[in-house]
Structures are given as structure tokens and as C-alpha cells.
Queue: 2 jobs
Job 1
Amino acid sequence: MKKRSAFITGVSGQDGAYLAQLLVSKGYEVYGGLRRNSHDELYRLRLLGVQDKVKLLNFEITDQFGVTELISKYRFDEVYNLAAQSFVGASWDLSVPTTNINSMGVLYLLEAIKRFSPETRFYQASTSEMFGKIVAPIQSETTPFYPRSPYGVAKLYSHWLTVNYRESHGLRLSSGILFNHEAPLRGVEFVTRKISRQLCEVMNGTRDRIGLGNLDAKRDWGYAKEYVEAMWLMLQQDEFDDFVVATGKTTTVRDFVEYACEPLDVEIVWEGEGENEKGYNRKTNKLIVEVNPEFFRPAEVDVLIGNNEKARTKLGWQPKTEVKELARMMVEFDWAAIQKAG
Ligand code: F7E
């Protein structure tokens, strides 16, 4: 029997790598879209042992001709659109590229699918950032949106575009409204990985302290490896729809710091408030964490908590990893990597 084919845009990112690993294990012919640059883009695929099992294709989502040519040539069974300018914090300075990638890129993909590959099943990476300044204490698929960043606004466009192309053209398109999801493969600019890595550096003596922004921000943090299973499940359904993927629990950045300290046997004592808040190592009195307003955002998303009931009942998906366990996993990974590097 012919293998099912899947194309992952953004295959070099955290979710792209975990999804590639999952689809390889399920026997798919996996293609990954790769945007050429000078960085080592493939280290995540290498870490997961799938770099030789993914066929890499040159891909630039903002190039409409290229997107159309690729979709019409391969007519993949499944397309997972994970390509994005995904760092919210940078989206104010990079609002034009963020919009081109996160909004226009999705339009190009959907147009190509509509015209040349209408049987393709398509997953759009939507996000809890669309809820932004929340209008309901717990957010579900029916909660109105109020994005707070150029990133959130651009993602909202592509979310609605996906809904609209599904309803207008009867295409097989689903959108996953994923809340924050982390792992040892998370980029170091995101707060959880920044904390796990920099904390290890502080304890190893190669960094003085960690500078963080808003310690009161609350996020619903889950494990990325579990979240990509929800993406796959969405495309295996007979009905295409939107699904919130979340744990249903929320944690402050400050508490995440404490959870990350535990595996290193560090107890942190907080002193001061707002911009003057500081975290000290109880045993040594050494300053470990300080607030640096450089990391504040022009408009903040204060708190997010997702209602995952629809994903649980319709997809049979549920989160397994608690945020404390996630913090431990990330710190253990970073500590081992630092020890190995010497
Ligand atoms: O920030 C606060 C920051 O950058 C989380 C992306 O995957 O999830 C991610 O977006 C919170 C914010 O993720 C620092 O202000 C404090 O309130 O880890 P983050 P994010 O912005 O929530 C959603 C679902 C996506 O879709 C995005 O693509 O932490 N925070 N201090 C900090 N954040 C960072 N980055 N650095 C700090 O020093």
C-alpha cells in the first residue's frame, strides 16, 4: 500500500521536530519545509533521530509561486502548517514580516490547496494568543478573541481564514488553538527554556543571574510532544473543526522559576515588588533572578487557561505531563547538556 504523505512547514522548530518523529513512527512519507539560512536548522530532528527520515524541501511560505508549485506538485495527503514567526515578544518590531508569514503565508497555502489539491487535509497552528486580553476566565473554542500583539492579530486572521475556507469551499481544514507548549527542544527565547537553561548556567557558574520580564504572567503550559498528537488526531477525523489544546491549569512565571529550581536543589526567596523584585538562593544568599523591564511587552497577555473538553471528548486526547514535571525535564536536559559541553 502506498504510504500516506505529510508535509510539515516549520519542520525545524520544536513542534515540527516532534510531529516529524510522530509521523515517521506512524509510517508516513514525511516531507519537511525548510527555509534556508545560516543556522544549524536540523539539530532538533537530529536529537530525535529522524533527520534521515524526513525529506527536506526548500520552502519559503511568503513566496506564493513557490508555495503553489510545491502544493500542486506533491498533492500531499496531509499538510501541517507550523511555519511562523512564533516569538510574540519580537512581533512588535517585526510586525510586517510577522504578518506576511503568519497571515499571508496561510492564504497562499489555502489558495493552493483549494485550486490544486482540494483532497489535502490541512492543519493550521492557531494559538491561545488570539484570546489575549481574555473575555472569559477559561477559554474554549467559543470564547471571543481579543489579541494583544501583532503576532496574535496575524494568527487571528489565519485562524478565521481557515474556518472560512472550510465553510466556503468544503475543504478539509482544522485549526488547533494550542495553549503554550514546551519541551527541552523549546527555543531559548521563550520564557520556560530561558529559565531552565539560564538557571543551569547560573548553578554551573557560567552566568551571573537571570533577567526576566513580567513574573506575574500566567500561562497554561503543557508538553509539546503530547500536543503534536492532538494535531495528528485532528486530521484523522471525519469532520474538520477547531479544537483547544490545553491542560486546564495555569502557572505564573515566578512559580515556573521555583519548579525549575527544585531539581537543582535550590530554594528561592523572593524580595521586593514589581521592577524591584529579586530572587535569592536561600542557601547562599546569592542573587539569581532579577526583573529587567527590557523584557516587558508593550501590551501583555496576563493570564490564559484553556478548556480542553472538546479535544478530550471528540479526539480522545488528554494532557499527561504536569508543569512541574515539564520544568524538571527541561532542567535535567539543560544540565546534562552543560555538563557534556564541559
Ligand atoms: O512568554 C512572560 C511573557 O515568550 C510567556 C509562543 O509559542 O505561546 C508562546 O507565546 C510569558 C509572557 O511565550 C520573560 O511576558 C516574563 O507573558 O514564553 P513566552 P508566549 O508569548 O506566551 C503561544 C501559545 C504562542 O502561540 C507563541 O508562538 O512569559 N515573560 N519574562 C517572559 N517571556 C520571555 N520570552 N522572556 C522573558 O524574559
Job 2
Amino acid sequence: MEEKQTTRRGRRIALAVTLITLAELLLLSIVLLGLDARRVHFYMTDGEEITVPWGVPYAEPGVRAFAAGRVTGEGEEELPVRVEGAVDTGTMGDYVLRYYASTMLRRYSVRRLVHVADTTAPVITLLRNEDYTPNWFEGYREEGFLALDDVDADLSDRVRVEMVDGDRVYTVTDAAGNTARVVRQIPYSIGRPQIRLNGGEELTIDAAFTFTDPGFVCTDERGNDLSAQVIREGEVIPWSVGDYELHYRVFNALGEHVEATRRVTVRPLRNPDLPGPEGKVIYLTFDDGPGPFTDGLLDVLAQYNVKATFFVTGLYPEYADCIGRAYREGHSIGVHSVTHSYRRIYASEEAFLEDFNAMQDIIRGQTGAETRIFRFPGGSSNTVSRFNRGVMTRLSRTMTELGYVYFDWNVDSDDAGDTTETGQVLQNIIAGCSEHPVSVVLQHDIKDYSVAAVERVLIWGISNGYSFAPLDETGPEIHHKIAN
Ligand code: ZN
């Protein structure tokens, strides 16, 4: 009985030991297995996602796997890697490659996403024409280019051409967004022409009726004559003293231009202080002012050293101070009429003298002096006073007795008649003065078109041997025939 109990206990103990041993082995395996799984590593060259060019055979960048701390063996050991999947670089799209490595206990894997895409920019080829020499004037004439792309084939008609800092820049982008850019340096951009002005950039001329441009030469660096392409802008009015600018420009096909500027100064002629040996004298006289154009007229006369005579009125009292200026600048001032009303001044000798003295008062106020010269309104030969028969005969005698000297004219500009155009006023004066060695010219400084002729009258007179002088009581005696 006791022996049986002992045998039974021994079996139980053996069983327990066996169970405990199996449990320990199981636990150990689980621990080793877990350690093993954590110690396999993949190394992927270029990463898990790559883009490869279309049309180029696929070259696997490589994947390596290493295992460490396996159940059997020690240290790291490289494992063979097996690849599943394929990349067709002839067809654009996305491909997945799987890489496998196995230990004795488990299989491991990683994946790689491969994009097959157009990654190559088009190629731009610039063509050259050996027979062609560019020049500045024509601008660059395109010699041609080709743009070829692996995927999109010929993109030549999509090339954009632009000028950047004198260079020609060609760009084209293919459908996948790859851009090519090529620069062509244009030799003509340094071949700009030059405009050389005959006579120089500063020119001073004497006032005259005509101006002849001394001309220019325009050549490019290769010696091509571009003179015919030069455009001149600006104007010189040679009969008007002043400074002028002439611009000479040549444009090329790109709208660029080269320019030269000439400054022309028109210098006044100088009226001689004394008459020349021929004794040709012109007395310019201006009636009915002063008015709005008198100041400008005085400026012109001053530039040419010319003194004239003003038979003044009170018609534009706001310009009365021109009388003072004219007097101070050496011009002669004579009475014309304060009212210039024929009905009033020719009604009687008293009425005439009343009007005359009122004008004399204004002159004295402006100049500080009385004048001894005058001009009858309408002239001494007027017929507007015939409503008072004989009045001109009586007045001319009375005024002479009072010590006054009157002047008519022998050259009529007709600026108070039918002539209202400057060129005709000028012609009338030139024609009239040509007939007399001594001329007294009638003009009205309240007529702008008549005043505008004066500068050319001065140029004509001075350059034709005349001198201009102011009237005074010593003459000349230019009297019309009294006609009442
Ligand atoms: Zn008048």
C-alpha cells in the first residue's frame, strides 16, 4: 500500500516537471520570436516613392534587407530580397513594386510606388544662316529654331521668343511642364547708327526769310548709309528771333531710335544807327494803338534796334502805359485822336482841338513831355470830313500855325482795308518801300496780322540797305493832297 502511494506521487512529480518544462519552452519561443521580428530591416535606395523618366528602361535603385538576433546564428546577416511587380516605362502611370525577405520564422515585405512620367525638357536648337548679317535698322530677322520633345514631339510652333536686355530668349514648355530656355545673343544690338550733324549741334543764324538745314549723315557701324531713313522734327522760323530745337531720329524695326538734336538760335539783324550812303530810310508808323499787340511789337523793334513812330489814341486805355514804354525806348509818339470819332473831331476846329488836347494830356501823363507831331485820323486827304466842307484846309493851317507837324504816308500796308493776311501786309509794304528812297509806312498796331509782318519788314529792309528811323518835326514832309 505504501509502495503504491510512492509510485503515484513520483508520476505526478514527473508530469508536473514535464508541463513546467513545456511552458518554459513555449514562453522562450514567444520571446525569441518577438525579438526576431523586430530585428529585420529594409534599406530602400531613393525611398518609397520615386519618379522615373518615360521611355528609359527601368533601373531598380535597389533594396537590401538585414536580419539581426535570430534564434539561430549571431550578428547581422543580409537576407536575399525578392521583387514582385514590374514597371513599364513605355507607359506613363503609377506602378507598385513589392520587396520580400524571409527568416526561418517569418516573411517580411516593403513596397515602393514608382511614377513613370515625362521628366525631360524639350530641346531647343537655334538655326544659323551663314549668309545673313543682322543690322540695327532692320532689327533681327529670325534665322529659325526647332523645339523637339521626347513625348510631345515637335513643339517649334509653341516657342515663345522675346527680347531681354538685347538678347533673344526662346522658351518652350512641354505638356508635362518641363521648360527649356535658350538665349541667342544678337550682334546687331551693338551696331547702333550715329547721326552726325553738318554744322554742329549748336547753330546761330542771322534772321532771314529762309532757313536751310546744313544736313546730316547717318551711318551704322558697318558703314550702311541710313540718312534717307532719318526723320526730322521741329521747325525753325528764321524770321522770328528765338531759340529752336530740331530733332533728327532714325527708328529701327523694333521701335528703338537714335537721336541727334540741333539747337538753332535766330539772331536779330541790327538796324544801323545812321542811314547808309544811299540814304534809303523807312519810317514805320503805327496808328490807333496802343493795344494788346503793342508790347510784343516793342519787343521786336528793340531786338533789331529799330525806332518807329506811334500815333496814339485813347481807344484802349488799359494799354496806355505802352506809350510810356515806347517813349522811353526811343520811339516817337504823335497825337492821333483820343476818340477817333470822325463825326466828333471834324465837326469844328474847336472840337478837333478839344480831342487833340485830351490825347496830348494822356501822352504828357505817360511820357512827361508834349509831342509836336500828329496824324489826322483818316489822313489829311480824308473824305470822311466832307460833312464839314473845308475843315481839313482850315485844320491843317491852324495846326501848322500852332507849331505842330502832321504826317501822312506814302506806303499803305492796307491793314485797315481789304488786307487781313500777314503775308499780304508784308508784300504791300515791300512793294511800296521799293518804290521810294524814303518811305512812311502806315500800319495799325491794333491788328495782330499786321504786327506779325513787322519782323520780316525789318529783315527785308536791313538786308536791302534801308535804315529805319522815327519821325520828328524835321520831316520828312509826306503830305497828301487835301481833298475837301
Ligand atoms: Zn486812325
